[in-house]
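Task card 7
Instruction: Convert sequence to structure tokens.
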Amino acid sequence: MPVQRKKKRKLNYKKIKALIAVVALIVVGYMAFKHGRQVIKADAEAESVQPHLNDSLTNAMSSYAGTEKMDEIIEKYLKRWEVNGAQLAVSRNDSLVFAKGYGWAEKEKGQRMEPSNIMRIASVSKLVTAVGIMKLQEMGKVRLADHVFGPRGILNDTAYTNAIQDTKYLDITVEQLLRHQAGFTNYAGDPMFSTRYIMMQNHLSTPPTNPELLRIVLKKRHLSYQPGQGQKYCNIGYMLLSLIIEKRSGMSYEAFMQKYVLRPAGCYDFHIAGNYYKDRHPREVKYYMHKEAEPIEEFNNSGRMVVKCYGENNIPHLLGAGAWCASAAELCHFISAIDGDPHYPDILSPKSVQAMTEEMPNHKFSLGWNFTPKDGPWIRTGTLSGTSALVMKFPDNQCWVFLTNTSTWKGQGFAKDTKELFERLRKEFGAELKPLPVVW
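Output:
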């Protein structure tokens, strides 16, 4: 009996020790969880109290002696083009020296355009996406030489692989998508802007998701040339780059870009745009069409007739091809973080910046930029129904950004004329603009 009692006590001690260990683990886990919650909360609070550029900008900051003539030139330019509202932002040596709104953010409500308003930036979004790819490469999660499709490709889901009919798709690389050299053309319509027709052709009752759209393209469209052997501007390539970012990061495209690209660059007011007036973000403008524009059938095949800038296209599904909205000033700030200029720290390595801005022969596209000539301005343009955008980074470290909330009757010709406007304003006023008292 004594022996049995002794064994029983030992057994009880073991149970007590095990119970203590479990309790300790629970306590430690709870403390770690609590600490984690506190860290997350502290990070969120720190971000919320950190001054953001758009929070402090006003037209008054860029209204001082010497800018009246500049204002007059810009206002005449907008009147000639029948543009309701626009923004101009200028940085020099990575410091903001001018940021001003002109005309109306929303004419019907009497809301003047301010430099803190945001608007769709169209294909300037491609530059943002290219930076995301370069960031992923620096993180070791993707290489520009990686293949996109096939069993060893990045988008190697069987749903994609089994849909491929044209084996040339297996040769597409990440870099070819960035440079519009993947073999895509718009001979049957740009897939990103043909939602209604794709729905009808494939007997769909709802607009396809991006993965569904990709499967349709892989199954029904052949590439027009061998990847790398030609060049044709096409939006679907940058939608694919957005899917690559999601696949390799394990995050949504927008979440990855916000966490690893935009916030590190000091840009807190970039957002994926919506389709309709009711979907606007805080500070977002109203969009307008030029007078000759006629209503068009809604992208989702509803049969409704809509204003082109509010329902012609499925804007959020453009993702990195054209869905971002921002202010001209924050775009200037973004450029300062990817331009190799030492005045403001870059979020990319010098190697990545050099790769993105290398001058390409034969007018080939740069990575994200349209063109980056060695002795001329780097250029990125963007156009959507209801908006236009132009970014130019000059060799003398001036960056000029112009955004509008109105379509023009001349389309791409507006960008050409705006470049000429930049040259005139730079010559007359560029050296006289003063750094603004804002958080940069």
